[in-house]
Design brief:
Elements (H helix, E strand, L loop, with lengths): L2 E5 L1 H10 L6 H10 L4 E4 L10 H8 L5 E6 L3 H10 L3 E4 L19 H13 L3 E6 L3 H10 L3 E5 L1 H6 L4 H18 L2 E5 L7 H7 L3 E6 L1 H10 L1 H13 L3
Parallel strand pairs: 1-2, 1-8, 2-3, 3-4, 4-5, 5-6, 6-7, 7-8
Helix pairs in contact: 5-6, 6-8, 9-11, 10-11
Length: about 240
């Protein structure tokens, strides 16, 4: 069964817009778990414009499902992850000024860098996932550097889904089959939504986890957080 990890960055963005602690990020994380989320994802960035490094430490004290910290592995990020020791760290090659993640790693070009990072985190007992495009060569490169999992960057799928969902999902199916062949765990995330998630989960083999934030939080404004999480869970379980 594919697990749902809720990315709560957008909740932190709302809190930061006014200062103070409303909404309370820790309470939201606990509520997400209570409503059925099987993991909590955060993506701290150097400017702390949404998730703050202090948030990561606070969440670590209370999250009882899978805690996933994702981000660009600069020195501060590495030290934070080593201190917290989450279940999973997801390495994302986004620039400090990026609005959101917009590409996966070139696992061939950056092989030495990734290999060293993976060794560092695995020595701390942390499962490592690498953010990659749906490219079989990048999947092979991920295997070569020793990661436990890959996370497929799904924005291209989401963009093409409304016009040709079969063509949109095809490269992700190929990448997933390559991951299975190589013994890599498979995650996915970015722009997955109530509109496109069910088909993706039905078509992509071996999908262990999806990380969803922006669309889920937007849906929750209209549908309520508890109901929204349950709707996303159904997308991952019904008809799969």
């Amino acid at each position: 069964m594919t697990r749902l990890s809720v990315n709560i960055n957008k909740v932190a963005t709302l809190r930061n817009a006014r200062g103070g602690n409303n909404p309370d990020l820790v309470k939201v994380a606990l509520d997400c778990e209570r409503f059925g989320a099987q993991g909590i994802t955060v993506h701290p960035r150097p400017d702390e414009r949404h998730i703050r490094y202090r948030d990561v430490l606070d969440l670590h004290e209370v999250v009882t499902t899978e805690f996933n910290i994702e981000g660009n592995p600069d020195d501060r990020f590495i030290e934070l992850v080593k201190r917290v020791k989450p279940v999973q760290v997801t390495l994302v090659p986004d620039a400090p000024d990026a609005i959101t993640s917009n590409a996966g790693w070139d696992t061939i070009r950056h092989a030495d860098h990734l290999r060293g990072l993976i060794e560092t985190f695995r020595a701390e007992g942390i499962r490592v996932s690498i953010f990659v495009d749906a490219d079989e060569r990048m999947v092979e490169g991920a295997k070569a550097v020793g990661t436990d999992r890959i996370e497929l960057y799904t924005e291209p799928y989401a963009a093409q889904y409304p016009t040709d969902r079969e063509a949109a999902v095809a490269p992700f199916v190929r990448a997933a089959l390559k991951a299975q062949e190589l013994g890599l765990g498979l995650n996915a995330g970015h722009d997955l939504s109530l509109d496109n998630l069910r088909f993706f989960a039905q078509q992509v083999p071996g999908l262990l986890e999806v990380s969803i934030g922006h669309a889920l939080i937007c849906d929750a404004l209209y549908l309520g957080l508890e109901n929204t999480i349950q709707l996303y869970r159904r997308c991952l379980t019904e008809g799969v």
